[in-house]
Amino acid sequence: MKVVIRHQKREVEVAGRRRVRDVLTELGVNPETVLVIRGAQLLTHDVQVGEDDTIELRPVVSGGDA
Amino acid sequence: MRCRKCGGAASVEIRRHHTAFCNEHFTEFFDRQVERAIEGERMFTRSDRVLVVVSGGKDSLALWDVLRRLGYQATGLHINLGLGEYSQESQRKAEAYAAGQGAELHIADIPGEFGMNVEEFARATGRVSCSACGLSKRYLFNRAALDLGFPVVATGHNLDDEAAVLLGNLLHWQTEYLARQAPVLSGAEPHLVKKVKPFYRTAERETAAYAVIRGIDYIVEECPNSVGAKSLLYKEALNLLEQAAPGTKQSLYWGFLEHAQRFRAVDDPALRACVHCGQPTTSEVCAFCRMTERAAERMRIRKGSPEASAPLAGAGRQGQTR
Question: Which of A26, B118, B307, B313 is the most exposed place for a label (fewest CB within 10 A)?
Fold first, then answer.
C-alpha cells in the first residue's frame, strides 16, 4: 500500500492488510501528530488498510508564536 | 471503532475522553466545546461583531467556519507576512474560503505597508522570526479591530498551542508571562481590544479533523520560519507524553487555568498611547514602532543612503485593510 506523508513531501510503500496504528508504528509516527485519511475519510487507528489502499498522513502540528 | 453517539463507524478517536465519533457527531462534539469556551469564559455573544485572525491554516479557518455556522458575526482578517510563496498561498486560502462562503475578509499587508517582511523585522532587532512575527500580528490585529470598530478579536490558538506556551513559560519560570496567559485577555479603553481564544478547549488534532470533515481547503505546509521553533519542540515533548498518557495536555493547561490566579500580576503596568502610532504601550514608543524603525534604519544603511526614504512605522495607515 502507498502512504503519502504530506509534511515530508514523500510517498512510501509499506505492507498492507493491517491496522493503521501498525503502519504508524512502522513509520515511527506518533499518532497524536497526524490525521490518517483515505480518500476523503478520516480513519481511526484500528481500521484495517488494504494492500491496494493509498492513505495520507496529514500533520496536525503547527508552530510559531502569535 | 464505533461512534459513541450513533454506533456507526467512527472517524475521530478522542483518547483523552476515551471516546470516538463519526463525522456528524464529532462536529456536534466540537461545536459544543467551542460554545462552552465562548459562553463559559464570556468571550462574546451573537450580538457582538468578532474579528477572526485568519492565517489560512487549519485552526484559523476552522475557527472562522465554526463561528459562522454557530451564528456568530465573524469577519476575517488576514495578515500577509511577506514570506514569499508561503504567504501568497496562505492569503489565497483565506480569500478562497471567504469567496466560497460569501464572508467578509480584510487584508493587512506587511510588505505593502512597510516595504519589508517580518524576517527583515527580525533581523533588524535580533529577535527570532516567530517573535517578530507574533509582535507584528498582535499589533496589526489590534489596530485593524480599532480602525474597523470590532470590540473583540478571536484567534485560532488551540489547547496544544496553549499547553506548549505554558510548558515553555514553566520551564523558564517566566512568571510575568504566566500572569498573562489566559483564554481571554481583556481589553483596555481606548486602545487595547479584547482578545479571545475559543479553541482553548479543543486539541490541535481535533481542529484539524474538523477542518477535514468540513472540507476546508487550508494550507497544510508549515511556515518556513517555524523550523526549529521552540514551540514545536515543546509540542513534540507534550505529544510523547500524550501518547503514553492521554489527557496530559488538557490536564496541564486546564489545571493551570484553575490555579492561574496565583500568578496574576498585582499591578498591570499602565498603558498609554504610542507617540508615533497611538497604539497601546507601556513606554513612550511601542515595541512594534521601535522594531519597524530599526528595520527601516537598517535598510537605509544597507542601501548606503541616509536620505533614502523608507516607510516609517505608523505611516500609511490608509489602505492596509480592506
Answer: B307
